Amino acid sequence: MRYSTIQIFSLALACTGLVGCYVIGMPTASISVSSLHMTTGTDATFTLTNTRFEGLYAVLRYSIEADPGITVSPSSGAIRGDGSHTITVSIEPDTTGEIRIRTNGIPFDETIQVTTAPDYFTMDFDSAVELAAEVANKTFLFSPQHDGTYKATQGDADFAPHIDPVDATPVLGTAIDLTQPVMLYGQTYDRITILEDGAVELGNGGGWAVTRMLAAHFANPGVSAMRAYLDVSAPGASIRYEEATDGVIVTYTGIPEVGETWRSTFQIVIYTNGAVELTYEDAVAANAVIGLSAGGGVPDDYVPSDFSNFAETTPALKASF
């Protein structure tokens, strides 16, 4: 969901008293996706909901436009309070573009990115509110498929237990040899590098990155749970890792951003069969990247994923000892 109650409330406060900006009781639009990775010939859908359920201005009126090669149906309509419309999207081959939604409510304008490009299972955030809404108290499971890609699902947060973890602080940025190699995107790796910025790189990796955002995430094979400017030296913060019989577990506990007090706790599990789990209790960062990387740089056709759109299920894997 694109807008939280906090964001909407903040917007309402900011606009109060400004002519034509906000009317108490006007409809509020909620859009179920931020992006769609589609296959030509297979339609996708998203939901447009009016979360305002009462008041004189409760009817949400909308119109939708799409870039060439993308069609939507319906392209306009009206939604009464607490109702929703399902919008169907079709796309032509080799197409990347936008769907633009205009409403008489809050927000007035919104866009959804749509593409036939591969899903790189990566999101980049520039809002702490959106990051928390997307991943807090959730586990995301990425299961390898025969075609070399992944199937992604989500469920309630379920951390893998540690039995005899090792403090990772002394070895941050240093390659660690594994007893059992792990896999990612069909490649096998017998060493990992745990970074202070919420990521684990595979193979020789690159150690410390010059930048900790999107370019660093895609530079080397690895997994970013919350690639951000984190302060691992903060009192009470810890990073632990442990090898299980079927993978490696890395857990970041109570880690704040540099100069901040709010703390994040999250976990990366990379399995010997190529599966990956990302689990979050709290996730707070003004700027962050999360997801998987095969390395080789930012793909030319990269479009951010939408983790909230992953199918909901109970993640089946848990590391064993």
Describe it:
The protein is mainly beta and 321 residues long. It contains three helices and 23 strands. The strands form four sheets. An eight-stranded mixed beta sheet has the order 13-18-19-20-21-11-12-23, with no helix packed on it. The chain has a six-stranded antiparallel beta sheet with strand order 10-22-17-16-15-14. The chain is globular, with a radius of gyration of 21 Å. 37% of the residues are buried.
What features would you highlight for this structure?
single chain, 321 residues, mainly beta, 2 domains, eight-stranded mixed β-sheet, disordered N terminus
Give the gist of this structure.
The chain has 321 residues and is mainly beta. It contains three helices and 23 strands. The protein is globular and about 60 Å long.
